[in-house]
Specification:
Elements (H helix, E strand, L loop, with lengths): L1 E3 L6 E9 L2 E8 L12 E4 L9 H4 L7 E4 L8 E2 L7 H15 L4 E6 L1 H12 L4 E7 L10 H18 L1 H13 L32 H11 L5 H6 L3 E7 L6 H13 L3 E4 L17 H12 L3
Parallel strand pairs: 4-5, 4-7, 7-8, 8-9, 9-10
Antiparallel strand pairs: 1-2, 2-3, 3-5, 3-6
Helix pairs in contact: 2-3, 4-5, 4-6
Protein name: Alpha/beta hydrolase
Organism: Rhodococcus chondri
Keywords: Hydrolase
């Protein structure tokens, strides 16, 4: 199915890929066959954010094919397996998607859980990725206060199962926006009010939120395989937003950079600095794209 990107008038070819336990829907902007062979195809991946979060960023790369996709259980990608995910499972989905594209090694921009999944992919299939830009992967086991952070994540999951989206998401927002380490007494503090974030206070009974029910615990518990990443042919860029300094994901990214022996690359904005006005939480996608292009074009 072909549609049009309203930002660029570029045609979007929407396709589907059957994988074990799911049907992945992905979008191709540009011609995969008639392209500059020296410029890798760019794959943009989030998790659990789906392809809709990359509309603005993709519009700034009209010079090369850009692929976006909905991870299993999100957006248009329907899953038929158990409603739980791991970075390794998402990495296998990415592996199968890249294999299906049949364009050689790609460049991968992964953000948040998508960056975690990208690290898992490179550990397993390094030949498929030329450059991985891992933007704020929340790999919490690398941090000195990981025990406290992971306990908070477990509390968010339990809150969701007990009370629904509003109370759990309020706790999640408090988690990801906190600057600095988490004390042992963090869970003794009063829970944030969902209404203060514009979130529902009533429980509608649903328990199918992809973040809160499927990905939160496994994503934040992921410990990268640094031996595999160091040995890989892939160039790994550890990237964090300038406005995210001190937050969990940015702290984890800095630790990844240190352990890989690379510089931490700073990008404009915060955790969602690449997002456009359609997201409701816009960053600066033009400046973000310029930095991403600079990073990808480095020799």
């Amino acid at each position: 199915m072909t549609a049009t990107d309203s930002n660029t008038a570029a045609p979007i070819d929407t396709r589907a890929l059957e994988v074990p336990g799911a049907r992945l829907v992905y979008d191709v902007r540009g011609d995969l066959q008639d392209r500059d062979p020296d410029t890798p195809v760019l794959l943009l991946a989030g998790c659990p954010m789906d392809a809709s979060g990359f509309v603005a960023l993709a519009s700034h790369f009209a010079d090369r094919p850009v692929v976006t996709y909905d991870p299993r259980g999100t957006g248009r990608s329907v899953r038929t397996d158990a409603p739980h995910s791991t970075p390794e499972l998402h990495a296998d989905d990415l592996h199968r998607l890249i294999e299906t594209l049949d364009v050689g090694a790609i460049d991968l921009f992964g953000t948040s859980g998508g960056a975690v999944n990208g690290l898992a992919l490179v550990s397993q299939h390094p030949g498929q990725v030329h450059t991985l830009v891992a933007h704020e992967p929340p790999a919490c086991p690398l941090l000195p206060d990981s025990e406290q952070i992971l306990a908070v994540c477990r509390d968010i999951y339990d809150t969701y199962q007990r009370s629904g989206t509003g109370p759990a998401m309020a706790k999640f927002i408090a988690l990801v926006s906190r600057v600095g380490s988490f004390p042992d007494t963090y869970l003794d503090e009063p829970a944030p009010d969902p209404a203060a974030f514009g979130l529902p206070t009533d429980d509608d009974g649903s328990r199918d939120d992809a973040l809160l029910s499927q990905n939160l615990l496994s994503c934040t518990s992921y410990r990268p395989d640094f031996d595999a990443l160091t040995a890989a042919s892939t160039r790994v860029i550890a990237a964090a937003g300038r406005e995210s300094d001190g937050q969990v994901a940015a702290r984890a990214t800095a630790e990844i950079a240190r352990r890989l022996g690379v510089d931490l690359t700073m990008f404009p904005g915060d955790h969602g600095g690449f997002m456009g006005a359609e997201s409701g939480m816009p960053g600066d996608p033009e400046a973000f794209a310029a930095k991403l292009r600079e990073v990808l074009d480095r020799p």
